[in-house]
Amino acid sequence: MSDPVPTGGTGPRIRILPDHVANQIAAGEVVERPASVVKELVENALDAGAKRIDVELRNGGKTWIRVADDGEGMERADALLALDRHATSKIREVADLRSVASFGFRGEALSSIAAVSRFELQTAPDGGGIGTQVRVEGGRIVSVSEIARRRGTTVTVRSLFQNVPARSKFLRSAAAETRAASEALILLALGNLHASFRIASNDRELLDLPPAADIGARVRELWGTDEAGELLALDEETAGIRIAGLIQRPDAARPAGGRRYLFVNGRPFRDPGLVRELDDAYRTTVAPGLRPSAFLYLAIPAGGVDVNVHPAKAEVRFSDPKLVRDAVREAVRSRLGGLTSAPGFGPEAGPAFETGTVTVPLPRVAERPSEIVTGKGSERKTSDEPAPQLAFFVARGTTSADDDDGGSEFGDADGDADAAALAALASPGDPTRTGPWQLHDSYILVPTRQGLLVIDQHSAHERILFEETMERFQGQGGTSQRLLFPLTLRLSPAEQTAVAELSGLLRAAGFELEEFGDRTVIVHAVPNLHERFDAETCFREMVSELAHGSELVNSARNQHERIAKSLACKGAIKAGQPLSRLEMEELVDRLFATDLPGHDVHGRPTILRLTLDELARRFGRT
């Protein structure tokens, strides 16, 4: 039985805890489960400059964990000091905490792990072949000896939580703990492309990752070519914040299982607010409930982020969180506006990093944005795509005056086979003009220098009308047409309520309404959407949808977006409507003037891309 706490003046009530007790308390912050041990030890190996890291587990790590590396080992004195609390080679003064560039700087990991296990450290520096072995039982050093070994460090942890049974009983099954440890290693592998990583469980290899030239290569090794092929390369810089990595094409997003990985200055972290900004950037490009994958790497100058706010360093604090979140949203949104975010036919639909190495900012800290180093031998590439030239007519055998690279995105200016093949599309009055044509009165086919675009005319017009209506709400143009014969419409009670509540926004969208009593409204003017616009049908369907709800309008974040989505869906030209050549040209020009031309308001694609490479593959020419 422990001594009772004094209640009078017989002695001090405050006591200094013995080291082994203090270490166990510290271990409660650092060591939650075997995955925590793997994370801390692998981070130490990376800080030591390791190029190869091997992790072995038994029973999910509950009975045995071994982490071996080829990094810079330690001399005997350093090996012993590393097992003391608050011992570190990374920090000298308080100011260092604000600019720490390494993973392991808290100085408690090794001592905390050793306090709750049977612990063995083997390490050797360069040269000599003589190393040090230290064995620890429950936080107490039991032996120190010399051993023969090559450069590097191996840490073996046996019987985790052997002296803390209350912690041990909360561990999950061996399979669950193995998954958690593997995920911890994957996080570090995604952030450290220069190193190779291996993890085995009960002598069965789970992962063996070689060094990766770029993040795309790492993703391919982890999850396969198919999943990597669904990703788009991203590299943007805003206000000194660089955001790079990979995001999933909207058409490939799934209801569950989207992979979300965030890194700042090479360090993985969690931030639900940043994930919400990511999802917000995908708005109107994916259907509600889908979770696109993202691998986002943020490089922020020193002083812009504090990593010392969480015991396990899983969370960070930004000096200007709004700036960071806005930068992420705008970078993702900008990338989704590119033509390659639209799906393609066959394998050429991805990977989206086919144009070269996908570089990511992997430094620990950058003093200035210009000092952000990406990776050995890699060049920074931006995700900006040239805006398609949508003139649809290029003189055969000539070069467009505004086309510096000798050709137009939509038509070949060199007079080669492409131009000849498109000659049949020339208008009778001008044989030098090429342009789009319509398939089954539903799809617009547009030749490009790289192949062919297939555009869904209804989906494309939805995107156009949605963005134009949102601009009207901001007072940026838009016209209405007065009806020669006003529409008199009787509404249901729910529809009357919806119209009354939304009358101001309906007016801003272009509808001029007058209440006429007995649940009747008169429509005097409607938006001037297109020549085939059926105002009565559109208004009735809109009002019904706004009154009773639908998946489309229920996914909107505000009333402005609800009306814009509904009007775009109900007012767009339909499949099966024939269009003149000029109408097709205007539609495509307006589509590529929008922010997100590749996606309609339901989250469906508006464009499919068929490349010349895919055609050659299909015809056996490659």
Overview of the structural elements:
This protein is an alpha+beta fold and 622 residues long. The chain contains 18 helices and 22 strands. Strands 5-4-3-6-2-1-7-8 form an eight-stranded mixed β-sheet. Strands 9-10-13-11-12 form a five-stranded mixed β-sheet, sandwiched between helices. Strand 20 and strand 21 form a beta hairpin. Helix 2 packs parallel to helix 6. It is elongated and about 100 Å long. About 15% of the residues have low confidence.
Task: Compose a concise summary of this entry.
The chain is built from 18 helices and 22 strands.
Q: What's the Cα radius of gyration?
A: 31 Å
Strand content: 15-25%
Can you identify the CATH class of the domain at 19-208? Alpha Beta
Order of neighbouring strands in the sheet with most strands? 5-4-3-6-2-1-7-8
Helical element count? 18
Structural class by helix and strand composition: alpha+beta
What is the straight-line distance between the termini?
81 Å
- Please count the beta strands (DSSP E, at least 2 residues each): 22
Under CATH, the homologous superfamily of the domain at 19-208 reads Histidine kinase-like ATPase, C-terminal domain
Q: Which fold name corresponds to the CATH topology of the domain at 19-208?
A: Heat Shock Protein 90
Q: Which architecture of the domain at 19-208 per CATH?
A: 2-Layer Sandwich
- Low-confidence segments, given as residue ranges, are 91-97, 348-433
Question: What does the average pLDDT come to?
Answer: 81
* Main sheet attributes: strand count, strand direction, barrel closure: 8 strands, mixed
Helix content: 25-40%
Taken from the alpha-carbon principal axes, the silhouette is elongated
